[in-house]
Amino acid sequence: MTIRHLRVFIEVADSGKMSMTASKFFLSQPTVSQIIRELEEHYNVLLFERIAQKLYITEHGRYLLSYARHVVAEFDTLEHAMLQINKTQQLRIGATLTISTCLLPDILTQLTTRLPHLDIFSYSGNTASVEEKLLKSNLDVGLIEGSVKNNELISMPLISDYLVLICSSTHPLAGKKRVTLKDLSNYSFALREAGSGTRTMMESYLTEHHINIDVRWETCDIDSLKTAVMQQNLLTIASVRLFEKEIKNHDVQIFMNGNYEWDRNFHLVYHKKKDISQSISVLHDILIEYGRPEFLADAEYGIVLY
């Protein structure tokens, strides 16, 4: 039993709804149910009764609630007192390479502006490595473009992103308005390394549509990926945000998926047993302010069709 159990219990008791509690603490509703069940098993009592799809706190629940409010209040007083001794808060953020390149610098600037005493450690890697570090408690939160595979992690889609087919302005596909998936088999590609969210998504998509491509360049470095496109005239499929400068300068041409199958989200990820600190809440608020990339409104692009 932890403080987190008591916080969730108090909110369920006050709101009478697990869905509202889940939203407040950025949890899934099954996770809230599990937390309440763990409390009931720990004390061997029934805390809530469900009647006609409504929750009613039991006598045992009311007894625990009075103590829980006191314990949580005392804990918060302790936290505040200790933080006053050392006013620096810490937040360890892991971000995938795409997000690290496109968004993380601005996100960190906003975080330090809103929380001047926040001490931030940042790590850049692919989706698999960020997930591993979260599970080992080496990171507090992760920002990823892929899907997490472990059900111990909570993943919240917050920022819209778009994968696009990209070629240089001198590539044979440059200037075309439409490209079919079968056309891609005729050209060579540069792709991200295995384990990246982008690579996983594209391999799944191409396999589903029975398309084989010739991969000539594999890299975990964004600058290297751009070099492969710009100097070696290879195709790539990557986040449109990575090539913002090149798109604005008309150095590359992009092709959007005509069926919107390459649309995706960047996710905020954390362990389901992680207490949501002030810094994580502020980070969440910053992320939901990002919308569709503004430069796309003026960009010319072709379409990839099946």
UniProtKB/TrEMBL annotation:
InterPro entries: LysR_HTH_N (IPR000847), LysR_subst-bd (IPR005119), WH-like_DNA-bd_sf (IPR036388), WH_DNA-bd_sf (IPR036390). SUPFAM superfamilies: Periplasmic binding protein-like II, Winged helix' DNA-binding domain. Keywords: DNA-binding, Transcription, Transcription regulation. Pfam families: HTH_1 (PF00126), LysR_substrate (PF03466). Residues 1-58 form the HTH lysR-type domain. It comes from the Bacteria. Belongs to the LysR transcriptional regulatory family. PANTHER family: HTH-TYPE TRANSCRIPTIONAL REGULATOR, HTH-TYPE TRANSCRIPTIONAL REGULATOR GLTR. This is LysR family transcriptional regulator.
